[in-house]
Write a structure and sequence with these properties.
mainly alpha; 13 helices; 80% helix; membrane; transmembrane; Sugar_P_trans_dom; Sugar phosphate transporter domain-containing protein
């Protein structure tokens, strides 16, 4: 009592404050690295900046770098334990996920050539719509009219933002929407093909298994589309500082995902992603000087409210599931407590009969 009254915090409160501070630290690291990777990729690919418009090549460089580091961490330094996967599981589960990941990264990086950073972030607000719709089609999510109404609200908001986009490019929009579609399908398939089998991959082991597969899939369009052009660029000399830092940031982002999701939750990352999107929109407008109209902001504001409501519903569902789990554990414990006196009574009666 004396210590508490003297102003020092109880150990329980001190532990809670420490967890809150660490959670904000993880969120800050993830937002910073995600922000950096997006702006860095835009800088490299945009014709008005670094002017190296080869998204497949850039993505393959990322995958080669991440594959190498993941191999070192898993096999050489053994910082992360390797998860044993059979050939059948790899071919039937990891390979499709790797193919979808390759398509998603290729298309999303390609969109930076045609669209502003701010508008791309607005289009990414459609991710919950795509994930929910594909989940319903594949019987992973149950159809709810209220949820679908919320998805329609998000879609209308993004459509208004697209209508108000000053530098609208139809091809760029198609590329980004394709990236959203493939990424949403990948997320749903992870639940169906891996989670349902009890296979859990953290970002490092995910890179260890998926990045090489992704590299192989990307090499097919690369040989057909970009390799002939790059072979003719005899004057181009890659800046190893630029591409090296870009790769380090991309790999660091995967580590940040591991910290954020592992120490908090995937929902926390979704909420932090909304904050990151607003920061990127502000940065795109103020620093890169991209045009952001009032119609853009009004449409994205509507989509933003829909995404916030979606995250709120997810949080409520998680809390309800946790409460049900605790109630079931409490009932099980109560059953054991009731059973123990009966067992003792039966043992006593058995002794008396002897």
């Amino acid at each position: 009592m004396g210590k508490g009254a003297g102003g020092s915090l109880p150990s329980g409160n001190s532990s809670l404050i420490r967890k809150i501070i660490l959670s904000y630290l993880y969120v800050g690291i993830w937002i910073s690295l995600s922000f950096t990777v997006i702006v860095f990729n835009k800088y490299i690919l945009d014709r008005k900046m670094y002017d190296w418009p080869y998204p497949i090549s850039l993505t393959m460089i990322h995958m080669a770098f991440c594959s190498t580091l993941a191999f070192l961490l898993v096999r050489i330094f053994k910082i992360v334990d390797a998860i044993s996967l059979t050939r059948d599981v790899y071919v039937s589960s990891v390979a499709p996920i790797g193919a979808l990941y390759a398509l998603s990264l290729w298309l999303s990086n390609s969109a930076y050539i045609y669209l502003s950073v701010s508008f791309i972030q607005m289009l990414k607000a459609l991710m919950p719509v795509a994930v929910y719709s594909i989940g319903v089609l594949l019987s992973k999510e149950s159809f709810k009219s209220t949820t679908m109404l919320n998805m329609i609200t998000i879609s209308v908001g993004v459509a208004i933002a697209a209508y108000g986009e000053a530098m609208f490019n139809g091809w760029g929009v198609m590329l980004q929407l394709g990236a959203v579609l493939f990424e949403a399908t990948r997320l749903v398939l992870i639940q169906i093909l891996l989670t349902s089998r009890g296979i859990s991959l953290n970002p490092i082991t995910t890179l260890y298994y998926v990045a090489p597969c992704c590299f192989v899939f990307l090499s097919i369009p690369w040989f057909a589309v970009e390799f002939p052009i790059l072979r003719g660029l005899s004057s181009f000399k890659p800046d190893f500082m630029v591409f090296g830092l870009n790769c380090v940031c991309a790999f660091g982002l995967n580590l940040a995902v591991f910290l954020l999701v592992g120490k908090t939750s995937a929902l926390t990352m979704n909420v932090a992603g909304v904050v990151k999107d607003w920061l990127l929109i502000a940065f795109s407008w103020s620093v890169i000087k991209d045009s952001v109209t009032l119609i853009n902001l009004a449409g994205y504001g509507l989509a933003f409210l829909g995404v916030c409501y979606y995250n709120h519903c997810k949080l409520q569902a998680m809390r309800a599931k946790e409460m049900q789990k605790k109630a079931a554990e409490a009932d099980e414990e109560a059953g054991r407590l009731l059973e123990e006196p009966r067992q003792v009574e039966q043992e006593v009666n058995a002794v008396e009969r002897r």
